[in-house]
UniProtKB/TrEMBL annotation:
SMART domains: AAA. The gene is drrA_1. One of its GO terms (molecular function) is transferase activity. Residues 6-234 form the ABC transporter domain. It comes from the Bacteria. Belongs to the ABC transporter superfamily. This is Glycosyl transferase family 8. Keywords: ATP-binding, Nucleotide-binding, Transferase, Transport. The lineage of its organism: Bacteria, Bacillati, Chloroflexota, Ktedonobacteria, Ktedonobacterales. InterPro entries: AAA+_ATPase, ABC_transporter-like_ATP-bd, ABC_transporter-like_CS, ABC_transporter_ATP-binding, P-loop_NTPase.
Length: 253
């Protein structure tokens, strides 16, 4: 249990008659990257909302950083941060001001120093004094991620972190996420991009029709599928092959 960052058992959630989660089970190891895959409407955001205490489940349990999301939501909130698809950056403020604001809200002692460290780490120090409205999509997303790391929460939820980014910014984002996990942070990410899961995740779970229908490492998932079928094509022998075969036979007898 000590090394488990997230433990989900028989989690259920309905919106009126719509049964979205029908008994979801999985666990996430500390310091690993876990990718939840599923098509649009599968219930990924619903699951993230429950794990981040924004929504109550109807049944089952979810333990995050050792705390029950339903009965100890305040403890859970202190251990996590959530970065959504739509960056929570204040466009009118500079990158540095955005970070200082969050550091103050979290009552950190040296907000400016915290801000500058994060700006450096996310390659934004040169743009520190520019308004966020002048940032590219990738820069904004990095600033958003930096803001969610103020106060170094051990578990990071990323809901579709690269949706809408160009390929270069996506690769940059993947690099940052990998570095965070290397530094011991647990990353729970949802994605619709299979290549993102392939690139980043230590373990992958597929949510489909309310349940986790498959989970494991990429190699384990690949083994679930039968090997590529071999196709036999009749090949006409060449005259040379016929000749050699006849000769060979004749020599044998
Ligand atoms: P995903 O993130 O995988 O796209 P969601 O968790 O957003 O899936 O949604 C799962 C299903 O629940 C969808 O069919 C969606 O329309 C529905 N849904 C989500 N939120 C609500 C809500 N507040 N009220 C009613 N239905 C909802």
């Amino acid at each position: 249990m000590q090394n488990t960052a997230i433990q989900v058992r028989d989690l259920q959630k309905s919106y009126k008659k719509l049964n979205v989660l029908k008994g979801v089970n999985f666990s996430v190891e500390q310091g690993s990257i876990f990718a939840l895959l599923g098509s649009n409407g599968a219930g990924k955001t619903t699951l993230v909302k429950i794990l981040t205490t924004l929504l109550k489940q109807d049944g089952g349990t979810a333990i995050v950083n050792g705390f029950d999301v339903a009965s100890q939501p305040d403890h859970v909130r202190q251990a996590i941060s959530l970065t959504g698809q739509f960056a929570a950056v204040d466009e009118m403020l500079t990158g540095q001001e955005n970070l200082i604001m969050i550091a103050r809200l979290r009552r950190l002692k040296q907000p400016r120093q915290v801000a500058d460290e994060l700006l450096t780490r996310f390659g934004l120090i040169d743009a520190a004094n520019r308004r966020a409205s002048t940032y590219s999509g990738g820069m904004r997303r990095r600033l958003d991620l930096a803001m969610s790391l103020v106060g170094t929460p051990p578990i990071l939820f990323l809901d579709e972190p690269t949706t809408g980014l160009d390929p270069e910014a996506r690769i940059e984002m993947w690099k940052v996420v990998k570095e965070l996990a290397d530094g011991g942070i647990t990353v729970f990410l949802t994605t619709q991009y299979l290549d993102e899961a392939e690139q980043l995740a230590d373990r992958i779970a597929i949510l489909h029709e309310g349940k986790i229908i498959a989970s494991g490492t990429l190699a384990e998932l690949k083994q679930l599928f039968p090997p590529a079928q071999k196709e036999y094509v009749e090949k006409q022998p060449t005259l040379e092959e016929i000749f050699l075969a006849i000769i060979g036979k004749k020599e044998e007898h």
